[in-house]
Every structure is written in C-alpha cells, then in structure tokens.
Amino acid sequence: MIERLLLFFLFLVGFRGILIKRNIIKKIISLNLINSAVVILFVLEGSRIGSQTPIMEEGISQVVDPVPQALMLTAIVIGVCVTALSLALAFRLYKATNTFDIDEIRIKVGKE
Could you list the residue range(s) of the whole structural domain that residue 17 is in? Predict the structure, then answer.
C-alpha cells in the first residue's frame, strides 16, 4: 500500500511540474517523472500476480505474468525517444529565442 502512495506522490509531483513550471526543461523532467511512476506501478502490480518464474515445469501453479514487464520495457524505450525529441525541440527553441521560458517564447514568436 505504501508503494502505491509513493508512486502516486511521484506522479503528482510530475503533474504539478507540467502544470506550474514555465521552463521547458523542467516540464520535460516532469514528464519523465510521470512516465517513471507509471512504469514502476505496472511492474509492481505485474509482480504481485504470481510468485514463480514462467518456466513451465511440473508442479508450478502461481506463475508471474511476463507481459506487463515486456510492455513496460517498450514504454521505457518510447519514453527515452520522447525525451530526446523534446530536448531537441527545446534546444531549437532556445537557439531561436534565447530563452527556455514559455511566456517569453510566446511573446517572441508572436512578434515574428
């Protein structure tokens, strides 16, 4: 139970960062926090399904489902790709506007 509460707190910290922070880099870090919280939650819940490895032998009944862990590996790879793309776009915005502040970027882009 405490694990779920800690993961919920991590999710809320990331969500707060996306809503409140004006710096693009801090928003990207907050998005990574949300992604990490969701991945850890899925792995945690997937590990509680069974207690034995998924190798089929005689007498094994409580098998851990490997599908949630395989899906979360895919989610981690997608998260890394989204982070890389976001950082590249933030760098391009910085080169064009000399700032990471979203409000200043809107003002500078609106003038052009």
Answer: 2-52+62-111
